[in-house]
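Sync notes, pocket subgroup
Present: LS, DG
LS reminded everyone that the earlier model was apo-only. Rerun requested with beta-D-glucopyranose included. Inputs:
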Amino acid sequence: MVGIGPRRRPSRKGSMTDIPKNLLDQIKEFEDVFTVDRQKLKEVVAHFIKELEKGLSVEGGNIPMNVTWVFGFPNGDEQGTFLALDMGGTNLRVCEIELTEERGEFDITQSKYRIPEELKTGTAEELWEYIADCLQQFIEYHHENEELSNLPLGFTFSYPATQEYIDHGVLQRWTKGFDIEGVEGKDVVPPFEEVLRKRGLPIKTTALINDTTGTLIASAYTDSDMKIGCIFGTGVNAAYMEDAGSIPKIAHLNLPPDTPIAINCEYGAFDNEHVVLPRTKYDIVIDRDSPRPGQQAFEKMTAGLYLGEIYRLALLDVIETKPGLICEKQDVSKLRKPYSLDASFLSAIEEDPFENLQETQELFERVLNLKLVKSELEMCRRLAELIGTRAARLSACGVAAICTKKNIERCHVGADGSVFTKYPHFKARGAQALREILDWPDNEKDKVVIMPAEDGSGVGAALIAALTLKRVKEGNVAGIRDKNSMLKLI
Ligand code: BGC
């Protein structure tokens, strides 16, 4: 029953007064393990900067710093109609985007499909067939009885891929809980194009891109202060524009040193060696039990896919190691199921507006079949705040590291992803962390502002496809494999 009970006061301090000592001790214990103070944030950023550099070097490192073959930003004159396919961690989206004559404007038509859970651990063939089904449905629905030929496609494939060319990409490893055999280590474009060819779909993959690169380009299309594109969602990552001269691993290409090239950092892999991140025992279990142990260390502490699981493990730990402290004599079987809670569970707790935590109480009962009393609810609320705050503060470290590395004092950062758009207080907590890391004086406004991005995986993919075709037309075919097919699209 919503609507009963006093509304919450802005401060939570008073609400802790009725909590028994042993629960207060537990809260304190959680605060100790999940709090990342300013000093630690700075340490993380210092190491992050070194790791970004290492990723650009010939030897490479944990963070792949993938070269994307996206040379510079759009100028607003890009035009044409493009398909965009967005394969994220949760949904698949097909879009048709018309970049119109007005500078920086576009029209978009789109359909969204939920990626079935079983597909994520199924076979490669099932994956490509499913994607082709979605594309086919979209085209049949929106272009019934039309004679179509040569539709250029920007394919947003949001996983780490090594690209020797923009229309090519070897999957380095699956992330975000995907575990499809036979795809890692191979170019994903040929099997994808093969299913399209078999169905007679007149589509040509013009650019394979990452969601962060798309976010960077789409955001810069409408705001020239945008210097970084970020995703804080099921997974985490960022892209920014680097000078060719600062990328030793492509020195052999002899590009003019000031050539701008977008780098897809893939910094979810930051600190896979576990040097600096303040991991808890829960983070260690998540990694151990994941399909890819030892990988995506930073992502596993900050991304939406894992927040609910961190929370579940922490609660279960209290129940199992401190019998009687919470949920005495209750059936905790639902809480035992891995990944039974997602980030929206924590969001809902943090959003509970009632002083008596009535919505949180209903949520626990509905989802976990657990009846909690007020003091237990207070602990659960604090735990959600701590995990959400830790994610936001650590997320700010990646942005701060790129800004520091590039000597960017002021800029806008385009951000997207479910955690950024939906998780309460994520933006304010991240902004506060940036202030602490970058030492802005109290009386100064934020210099680096993380703000909602344009649709990177749709519009960004279309723009990158447009930029690629423009290059081909101008005879600049660096990083393009299938020039002849591209020429037919122009
Ligand atoms: C992937 C990145 C992607 C990020 C956000 C990570 O798991 O490796 O490619 O940009 O998630 O979607």
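DG: The first helix runs from residue 21 to 34.
LS: Residues 1-5 have pLDDT under 50 and may be disordered.
Action: DG to write up.
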